[in-house]
Amino acid sequence: MTERVRTPAEYIAMLRRRWLLIAVLAVVGGPLAYGVSRFLPTKYKSQTTVLVEQPTVSADIVKPVDTTDIGLRLATMQQQILSRTRLEPVIRQFGLYPKDIDRVSMEELVSRLQKAIEVTPIQPMAETRAENLPGFYVNVTLDNAHTAQQVCTTVTSMFIEESLRLSQQRSEGTTQFLTQQLADAKANLDAQDGKLAAFKSRYIGSLPDEEQSNLNLLMGFTSQLDAATQALARAQQDKGFAESTLTQQLSAWQASQGGHNPETLETQLVALQTELARLQVSYTDDYPDVIKTKNDIAALQKKIGESNNPKTGTEAVKSAIPSMEPAQIQQLRAQIHTFEQVIAEKTKEQEGIKAEIKAYQDRVQSSPVVEQQYKELSRGYETAQDSYNQLLKQRDAAAMATRLEQEQEGEQFRVLDPANLPDKPSFPNHLLFAGGGFGGGLVLGLGIAFVLELKDTSLRTERDVEFTLRLPLLAMISTVEPKSGMTAEPKLEPRGVDHMTVGARS
Prior knowledge:
The chain is α+β, with helices and mostly antiparallel strands. It contains 12 helices and 6 strands.
């Protein structure tokens, strides 16, 4: 009993009591709003449909430079086009707001035009599940139909031109940036290439890819050293044997020169001629041994001619002819000389081979350090080369996208429906105003009726009595109003509680 909750029947009773007020306000509201709309200034709306055309070349072939969402780009262009810098020339060009242009600031006029221009994206159909924006509408609402059409056409052209300009600007800017980055990457690559070339020139023969060849050459030089060592040992052994034989031959010859076995001049001549023939086989006539042997043969022939004199021959030979070594001894001396040359050559060859072995051993030992440094330089060179190749591909792709934008083959705006010339004003809509006035009057009547019912303190039902008096109702006595000639029927008094009996429960 502390809270009053009204039932639907009570609300219906309220409407029955206040229906006249509600009906009057609803009926009056429609014509009143219609009449007001006749005095409002008319507005005409011109609309353009702009289609967003996809690039003619697939994005898989030529990737666009600007991958920003078209909705975001459209919002950015809208802020730029609807700025004061872009709209003030439009106001002056078409003479908009002529009555207010002298007494109102340009900022306010620009603000009015901004509110008159509406850009609405076209939402793709849900069935297509497309993510790209298919297009947008440009609506311009002004007080003159022709002016609205002209301004709508101008604003649409500004959107198309701005889209093309921004696309080309981004493409060219990206291409220039990548070109500069490519130049820097090329300079870095050239520097790395120079360092790598200098390193190879400095450590030529010790590079990692030459390690196996160094080992093979080292094994070859080791074999050559073994062969030279063996040849040197044989030459030394042969020289020792020849020197021993020469010693024995010299002893025998010197003993024969003492008178034990004298050798005749003819025998010496035959031996010299034999030695000369042997020398001429191996040497030319200018060879010193050949010349010496020829001189000895000539001297010996001369002595033999003088020895034909029986008186002085024997003595002259003994006194004047020098003792000549036999051919065997001379051959032994020549062999010893040859062995000495061989030993000298093999010794020199052995020293050269040892030097080569030492150099290749140093190369093999320094290979790990050189390999580490080479890997560091190679890693830097490969990184610079990869960066250069990647930038080169990106620069070429950006340049191709720029050419695509310049030839207007990329994504662009195209006017699908040009700005229309409105044949009737879009504002005010008289029927809409009349309907709004009717609805407003109805709502106003309901509101006033509800307020009046809340302020009314009359007791009409037993629930009103119980809620007001905080006491339970035992019975109600209806007011009886007799009518002439008819039996009176009980009637509940609509107002007050004068005829009601209220009692408290015992």
